[in-house]
């Protein structure tokens, strides 16, 4: 029976959990912290090759940010002698954080994208060992007008088309969604239908400047995307060209995370929060919401989750799904709790507790 590998990046290091598939598997067993006292904001489990490769974007307060890789499921780690992600000198800036590590689809073997703070995109063709600067996004004429979100000004989401390596979508906080149809040569804002709720009413739908929190891609239709905004949950059926609001059935439309089922189409998950000045779960209840009809309806999932008042916030990359059958769902919160479901979210168990703030979660069957 294959194991599930659960990677949990926290404010003070990386923790790796393993267990057998299904609810009859053994208890979760965690190792770590790897990279103690380093904030791990980005993770990837690249299963495209024969051996899974783990990538971790860790941030040392002393040495600065770096990208580590492991080809033995975390038993050992390699850090390049020279920074894997580095801004060219002529930009006049330096890397503050790697917010996203995204292995591209089957159409681009070996390609891994890194989204960073300051808001920029880097591309690797060797599985994440070295990265090149995507200058076209950095030099986009709208980039100087991107503002910084509460967490900083960053490219935090990368989505690639599994069958067309030239189609790349990124989300910027707070620049909005940008798409490239030529592999990153040119970029266009792609925010039609998405509100910027923090702007005056007459400016609610700008060409760019939305505070997008996360985007996830449908498993069956790669042109169907789900977007969690700073106020609003949206769906696109045309690869991000246009968006429609699907948050009407949720108790709140603010939140950070959105994830999709890895095999079933039209299935997505969010963790709603009350907006802005009160960023806690509605009614202080720990609930994941799932749609099985592309956002037409939503159902609350809470079996096995805490029944007492809940105040934990799930950040943008702290919810993930695995590639198993029937499909696992995982999330961690800023209280240091990690919850896992082996049955698509129907029931839950606590996988870990008392960790530092959970910043990101990734899972895969290995």
UniProtKB/TrEMBL annotation:
Q: Output the SUPFAM superfamilies linked to this UniProt entry.
A: Oligoxyloglucan reducing end-specific cellobiohydrolase
Cited Pfam families: BNR
For this entry, the protein name equals Exo-alpha-sialidase
């Amino acid at each position: 029976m294959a194991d599930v590998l659960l990677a949990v990046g926290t404010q003070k290091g990386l923790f790796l959990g393993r267990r057998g598939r299904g609810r009859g598997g053994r208890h979760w067993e965690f190792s770590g912290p790897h990279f103690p006292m380093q904030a791990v904001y980005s993770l990837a489990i690249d299963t495209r090759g024969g051996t899974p490769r783990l990538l971790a974007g860790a941030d040392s307060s002393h040495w600065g940010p770096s990208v580590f890789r492991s080809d033995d499921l975390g038993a050992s780690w390699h850090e390049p002698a020279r920074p894997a992600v580095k801004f060219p000198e002529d930009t006049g800036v330096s890397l503050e954080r790697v917010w996203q590590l995204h292995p591209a689809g089957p159409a681009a073997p070996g390609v891994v994208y890194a989204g960073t703070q300051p808001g920029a995109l880097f591309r690797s063709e060797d599985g994440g060992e070295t990265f090149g600067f995507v200058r076209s996004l950095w030099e986009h004429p709208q980039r100087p007008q991107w503002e910084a979100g509460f967490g900083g000004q960053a490219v935090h989401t990368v989505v690639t088309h599994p069958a067309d390596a030239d189609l790349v979508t990124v989300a910027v906080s707070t620049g909005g969604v940008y798409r490239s149809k030529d592999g990153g040569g040119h970029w266009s804002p792609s925010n039609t239908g998405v509100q910027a709720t923090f702007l005056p009413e007459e400016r609610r739908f700008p060409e760019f400047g939305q505070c997008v929190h996360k985007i996830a891609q449908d498993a069956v239709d790669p042109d169907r995307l789900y977007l969690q905004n700073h106020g609003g949950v949206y769906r696109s059926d045309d690869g991000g060209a246009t968006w429609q609001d699907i948050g009407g059935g949720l108790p709140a439309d603010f939140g950070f995370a959105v994830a999709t089922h890895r095999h079933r189409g039209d299935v997505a998950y969010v963790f709603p929060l009350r907006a802005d000045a009160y960023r806690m779960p509605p009614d202080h209840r720990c609930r994941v919401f799932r749609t099985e009809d592309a956002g037409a309806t939503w159902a609350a999932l809470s079996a096995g989750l805490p029944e007492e008042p809940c105040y934990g916030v799930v950040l943008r990359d702290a919810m993930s799904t695995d590639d198993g059958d029937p499909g696992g769902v995982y999330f961690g919160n800023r209280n240091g709790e990690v919850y896992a479901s082996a049955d698509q979210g129907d029931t839950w168990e606590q996988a870990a507790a008392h960790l530092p703030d959970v910043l990101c979660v990734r899972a895969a069957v290995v």
